[in-house]
Design goal:
With 381 residues, the chain is an alpha+beta fold. It is built from 14 helices and eight strands. Its cofactor is Ni(2+); Fe cation.
């Protein structure tokens, strides 16, 4: 029998980003765990302080490469809500299309990541191949596969307008993607070897999920309703018909399955949005330049990112500069839940359990401004 500690990280072969995990074990069973993040501190919130709001919004896009659009959309939405800025309907539909495409590629990336941890290299590579049509759509719409820079205050950039011809090209690629991802989802749910590694592993019951404020697919895998799009926080989705996916298995398999079926719902949303765009009665306007940016105290804005509830808060002073920036990504709370539930499982399950919440360490690693800085800026707001 061996009792001691196993230290993993800050670099681990199966994890996409650096972190440090300490496992305190009895033989091969985990008795306690300590997960440390902070390797990727870049001080985004501090850098936003004092920037013109337009520049600060663009900076938020650089927080993450996988969920760059939702960060930019969240910061732009906050300013639009606070200053009561009208956004054309066409621009709203295009923002939704980009966000749901981003959800497709993010969830598919997690599938590939999970297969890699499980040692199924072939399926991992197949997931990346399946994801490729989505990345091609991003490039055709925005000219980029990572940072699309689509939303701006008042609408979207002209280069991101989706024409009728582009809509005709997107639909076959979406069909191809749906066919391939459906086969992968079927494999995940029915392959005995894969199921045996994920079923009843990393059980996050509803009580623990609520205690640690698990969000997104991590919470929905424990049968906790948490979709901000369905809860009225993102009214841009009110015109779309889609289901909130819930599973009650509470394990790794359930959290993976939620994302699989969410992919199919996202495809449904994209097709509806394309239908709206090709409707001749829809105004071609994509940008409202007739607005005035008002000074406002810090307010809150919530959106549903790929990993769950995303929180943005900042104010704008009389000079149009950002003050008191605060950002909370869904991984911040999901990781706390994962650290809690690894206890009692084998060492070989640890990274799989943590990966099942689809962590984005770089999103989470931001450095807030120092408390004394508030005194400097408070008189402005």
């Amino acid at each position: 029998m061996y009792e001691g500690e196993i230290a993993i990280g800050p670099v681990h072969s199966t994890m996409l980003e650096p972190h440090r995990l300490r496992l305190f074990i009895d033989d091969e069973i985990i008795k306690d765990a300590e997960l440390t993040i902070g390797v990727n501190h870049r001080g985004i919130e501090r850098l936003m302080e004092g920037l013109p709001v337009e520049k600060a919004c663009i900076l938020t896009e650089k927080i993450c490469g996988i969920c760059s659009h939702i960060h930019l959309w969240s910061s732009v939405r906050l300013t639009e809500i606070a200053s009561k800025i009208y956004v054309p309907e066409r621009a709203q539909h295009i923002r939704v299309i980009i966000e749901e495409l981003e959800r497709l590629h993010s969830h598919t990336l997690l599938f590939g990541h999970a297969f890699e941890i499980l040692g199924h290299e072939t399926m991992s590579m197949r997931c990346f191949m399946t994801r490729e049509p989505v990345m091609q759509i991003f490039f055709e719409i925005s000219g980029s596969r990572v940072h699309y820079s689509c939303p701006i205050i008042g609408g979207i950039r002209p280069r991101c307008d989706i024409t009728e011809e582009q809509c005709r090209k997107i639909l076959p690629k979406l069909d191809e993607y749906e066919e391939n991802i459906s086969a992968i989802i079927d494999r995940v749910l029915n392959d005995p070897l894969l199921v045996s590694r994920m079923k009843d592993v990393g059980v996050l019951d509803r009580k623990t999920a609520a205690k640690f404020h698990a969000v997104g697919p991590t919470a929905r895998g424990s049968n906790v309703k948490s979709d901000m799009r369905k809860m009225g926080w993102v009214p841009e989705y009110d015109v779309y018909e889609f289901d909130e996916i819930l599973f009650d298995g509470c394990d790794v398999l359930s959290r993976i399955a939620v994302r699989g079926f969410e992919i199919l719902e996202s495809i449904k949303i994209i097709r509806q949005a394309i239908g709206f765009l090709t409707d001749k009665s829809l105004s071609p306007e994509i940008y409202n330049s007739n607005y005035e940016l008002e000074e406002f105290k810090p307010i809150e804005c919530y959106t549903e990112a790929q990993r769950g509830q995303q929180y943005y808060s900042y104010g704008v002073d009389a000079d149009g500069r950002v003050r008191h920036a605060r950002i909370r990504t869904p991984t911040a709370t999901n990781l706390g839940a994962m650290e809690e539930i690894v206890r009692g499982y084998h060492v070989s399950d640890a990274e799989l359990i943590i990966a099942s919440c689809d962590p984005c360490f770089t999103c989470t690693d931001r450095l807030s401004i120092l408390k004394e800085d508030y005194n400097t800026y408070s008189k402005k707001i």
